[in-house]
Amino acid sequence: MKTPSLVVLLQIAGLMHLGLVWAGALMPGVVQLRQHTRNLPPFIRRLFWVYYTFIGLCLVCFGGITIFCAPSLAAGGMLARSLCLFLMLFWTLRLIAATFIFDLRPYLTSGWRRFGYHLTNIVFTYLPIVYGLAAWKGGRA
């Protein structure tokens, strides 16, 4: 794969991270998260929200790094390939979790929610493929 094509695929992946942040920001309202966490002990409730926030921050950083450093990631240096390998594994595990651990059927109550669910699964499939491609092919014309 030509490096310029890989740069574009990586930049799309970066934008997808930001789309996941947006979807994640909508999720608490969709699943009535505040209502469900209200009965938790304060420490556990705060711990959940801190983790949720840190995940969002990681997604913003993954997206920003991918968008702005796509040429370096596509060039295939050791650090770039290592980061792409990490992100491939991260998103592969996330895809496995989405497929086998989370049952969202009770929340897929409208056409838009079902569309969003399928769209996020497409993103969860695209990301490990592109990062795997960058880890494997990066720097090769």
Walk me through what this model shows.
There is one protein chain. The protein has one domain. 82% of the residues lie in helices and 0% in strands. The chain is built from six helices and no strands. The chain has helices at 3-30, 33-37, 42-68, 70-75, 78-100, 111-137. Helix 1 (3-30) runs antiparallel to helix 3 and helix 5 (78-100) packs antiparallel against helix 6 (111-137). The chain is elongated and about 55 Å long. The mean pLDDT is 93.
Task: Summarize, please.
The protein is mostly helical and 141 residues long. 82% of the residues lie in helices and 0% in strands.
Keywords:
141 residues, mainly alpha
Topology record:
Layout: H1 3-30, H2 33-37, H3 42-68, H4 70-75, H5 78-100, H6 111-137
Helix pairs in contact: 1-3, 1-6, 5-6
Task: Give the CA-based shape.
Answer: elongated
Mean pLDDT: 93
Strand content: under 5%
List the helices and strands in order: HHHHHH
Instruction: List the domain count as a whole number.
Output: 1
- From the N-terminal CA to the C-terminal CA, the straight-line distance is 6 Å
Question: Can you summarize the main beta sheet?
Answer: none
| Overall radius of gyration | 17 Å
Share in helix: over 70%
Label the structural class: mainly alpha
Number of helices: 6
User: What is the tally of beta strands?
Assistant: 0
Instruction: Give the uncertain stretches in residue-range form.
Output: none
